[in-house]
Amino acid sequence: MREDSPVSHQPNGAAFDLVLLLHVACVVVGVATTVTSAATASRLRRLTERASPLSEATARYFAPGVNWAGRVMYGIPVFGFALLAMSQGAYALRDAWVLSGLSLFALLVLVAESILWPAERRLQIALADPMAEGVAPKVGVLGDVRAMAWSALACLGLLLAGSALMVAQP
């Protein structure tokens, strides 16, 4: 809570609690999807190096389509702004921890939209070849696997840093 705030209590109420729960749920889903992305990229790297066939789970992960579970992360600032509005002045956009959290989220979106999800899409295309019996080290595949793994870890770090910041509210 801000020291200069006339409000002397933490925001509460069923609506605030529900929005806070949705905000946290978006973070949890974001953490789960980035951990899954990093683990799957690591698994794919090993399969590619051995020219082994894809496991059913790995093939299912790289099935063509948008990673909608990952996009749930966009709910983090949406519910965060709702929490600010519902806080009755206890929190404000000008608070340093709120601005820092928004900066971390902007960096998260930059990494996910420019590196992680494009690498996933390129791998979906590369692995959709019905003639491939195994994952041969195709040109670009290993680079995309590395990009996916490292960007997923970066996104995970940003999510965890933002979570720590929101809990601490320095």
Q: Which percent bin holds the helix content?
A: over 70%
Largest sheet report: none
- Oligomer status: single chain
Strand content: under 5%
Distance between the termini: 9 Å
Q: How large, in whole angstroms, is the Cα Rg?
A: 20 Å
Q: Average pLDDT, to the nearest integer? A: 88
* Tally of DSSP β-strands: 0
- The tally of structural domains comes to 1
What does this protein structure show overall?
The longest helix is centred in the first third of the chain and has 37 residues. The chain has one domain. The protein contains 6 helices and no strands. Helix content is 70%, strand content 0%. It is an all-alpha fold and 170 residues long.
Question: Would you kindly provide a brief summary of this structure?
Answer:
This protein is an all-alpha fold. The chain has six helices and no strands. It has one domain (14-168).
